[in-house]
Amino acid sequence: MRKQLEKQNKVRSSFVGIFVRFGTKTNYHGFPEKTVLLENIRNAENDIVCDHLWFNYTKQFQSLGDIKQGDAIRFDARVVEYKKGYVNHRKFIDEQTIDYKLSHPTKVSVMI
Q1: How many domains does the chain have?
Q2: What is the per-residue pLDDT for 1?
């Protein structure tokens, strides 16, 4: 679990992450959707809040143009909790836990 993010639950703050690579995921309709991987996410106090996060490749990220591995990306985001883990309703197995992520990134920019 991301303990640093848990302390800031439901708070919108500024963060900086290092761009690693693009990826894809399958969306709700079964089509591929582009994603962005950021590592070493730090808050405004320069404390590492999580080791990595995946974001959807939104218009905010698209507006950055050609980003390269190692670029520092600054953004504002809200800390939200979500459930992760395995669920099997037929066998009544629920191994979900609460974790925290950054949601709705805005003011996305490349730091120089």
Answers
A1: 1
A2: 56
Q: Using DSSP bridges, classify how beta strands 72-84 and 97-110 pair: parallel, antiparallel or unpaired.
A: antiparallel
As beta bridge partners, residue 73 has: 17, 110
**pTM for this model (two decimals):** 0.85
> Region 6-14: what's the mean pLDDT?
91
Contact present, 42 and 15 (Cβ < 8 Å): yes
Range of 38's domain? Answer: 3-110
Say if residues 76 and 105 touch (Cβ distance below 8 Å): yes
Phi then psi dihedrals of residue 107, to 5 deg: 50, 45
Rounded Cα distance between 13 and 8, Å, is: 9
Distance of alpha carbon 13 from alpha carbon 102, whole angstroms: 10
Q: Which CATH number covers residue 94?
A: 2.40.50
Instruction: Name the H helices within 10-106.
Output: 59-62
Mean pLDDT along residues 9-14: 92
